[in-house]
Amino acid sequence: MEPDEKPWELVVVGAGSAGLTAARTARLLGAEVLLIERHRWGGDCLWTGCVPSKSLIAQARRAPPARRRSAGVLEAHDVFTGIDSARESIAPDDSPEALRGIGVRTLQGEAMFTGDQSMIVGGRSVEFTRAIVATGSRPSVPGIPGLAEVDPLTSDTIWELRELPERMVVVGGGAIACELGQALARLGVQVTIILRGPDILPGEIPEARELVRSALEVDGVRVLTGRCVVRFHRDASQECAALLDDGTRVDADRVLVATGRRAGVDQLGLIATGVETDDCGWISCDPTLRTDNPSIWAAGDVTWLPKHAHVAGVSGAVAARNALLGTRRTMHDAGAPRVLFTAPEIASVGTQEPTGRDRVATVRHVHVDRAVAEDDTAGFTRIIVDRRGRILGGTIVGPRAGETLGELTLAVDQGITVQRLTSVMHSYPTYSDGLWNAAIQESQRRLREGMAGRLASLMRRRASWRARRGVKRR
Ligand SMILES: Cc1cc2nc3c(=O)[nH]c(=O)nc-3n(C[C@H](O)[C@H](O)[C@H](O)COP(=O)(O)OP(=O)(O)OC[C@H]3O[C@@H](n4cnc5c(N)ncnc54)[C@H](O)[C@@H]3O)c2cc1C
Ligand SMILES: NC(=O)c1ccc[n+]([C@@H]2O[C@H](COP(=O)([O-])OP(=O)(O)OC[C@H]3O[C@@H](n4cnc5c(N)ncnc54)[C@H](O)[C@@H]3O)[C@@H](O)[C@H]2O)c1
What we know:
Low-confidence stretches: none
CATH class of the largest domain: Alpha Beta
Strand order of the largest sheet: 3-2-1-7-17
Helix content: 25-40%
Distance between the termini: 92 Å
CATH architecture of the largest domain: 3-Layer(bba) Sandwich
Number of domains: 3
Bound molecules: flavin-adenine dinucleotide, nicotinamide-adenine-dinucleotide
Structural class: alpha/beta
């Protein structure tokens, strides 16, 4: 079937994490699917998001502290070459050739809807019975006076650098500012993070934020909170400066803007489809990801969902199933697992705040032998447990916290109780001991204080009474 033969059973716009998974799922279900991409196959995650950032972080971690501060042009060149090679190793998996190999039809070009069930792509018309919009998000750049004159970097463009600047101002205090700010500082850049809120990482629990903030400071990052940049300024020597609302001036060579995202819906022609956007500009869709147009679903960053590659991927699969099978699987905006890849990492899933009779069990990593052995004890594992002992959620802060998160995510998803988790043997010494010990701690408390504890004490008393009688009889 050629793109202009009609109509396609399913057209997916955007080949990022959401669109790729939607197209692959559609093929698994046996559908004729056309995937359209205007730029690079693999989207943000591969080219400007997860992969380059985690490569940068890993290289910064490996840089010995003595060299970190003296990273020069040569090392910077190596860093960016390392990033390119990570991307290039993964790229073939998401390429049109690989997709065609599994029967997904691909089309390179910018899609623009022209009607309820039609669009145009580079002059070719494409008709469909169902479509999924998976066009992602892009950096949202605030309108600070003078910003354009300092040629700001964003998470889209920073990967094009071939030299590291000596000093960098990062505007924003979220995931990108903290991950990239710390990695760049470890590579020798003098980083100043400026954010208007009272603290970095507003979505994380205070104790986790505090640990990451002190780690940033140990790595040499200056964090200025509750401050707004009122204007940027570039002088004749090409130096730039951020002028803050309290009169402070911060000099820098480059500026990175990391102040959130906005939906990638420009030039998409949504108006022709009746698909609406919400107050924040995300495509408005119900939990089954169906939009106001009954033929169109949306998935990934372009929607109100949390902005993570795995959420995008799962939402792509959900949208494809719902669109093709008429099912009503749902997605929700809270509780998805997420990892912040700073050092220490913050990994969390599910409920973060106890309500009613929920309990919190926390194990500090000074009591986790692996952390002690590695002299990296500034972390903790905290779980929220309901009155029946079921694990509702939790946060892990520490090295490789993201690797323990899988087990916690499974426990939350399956409604596993602390008693059940306690009975599963864990290998020693691992960071997962934090989670296991938190479950043991809570399970022992329940034993002491709960019905099970009362029953155990009754049984103990009865057994010792019997033992005493036995002794007398003899
Ligand atoms: C610096 C950074 C680090 C990150 N790190 C992580 C991480 O560690 N873990 C994690 O889970 N998430 C991370 N994320 C978030 C993650 O990258 C995104 O949530 C994810 O990539 C979103 O996928 P998506 O498919 O919705 O959108 P995208 O990947 O943006 O894909 C959308 C695609 O649609 C195409 N497109 C747009 N409009 C059109 C059109 N009209 N016609 C045709 N094609 C079009 C675009 O070119 C793009 O390829 C990070 C993000 C950033 C910026
Ligand atoms: N490990 C991961 O999963 C990961 C890593 C990086 C990015 N991401 C995703 O990418 C998305 C974008 O990240 P981000 O860091 O740009 O956004 P964010 O929403 O995480 O943080 C934006 C920050 O910028 C601040 N801010 C907004 N406007 C400002 C202004 N004018 N001046 C100063 N501060 C301002 C906000 O208060 C907030 O602290 C996030 O939603 C995140 O989920 C995920």
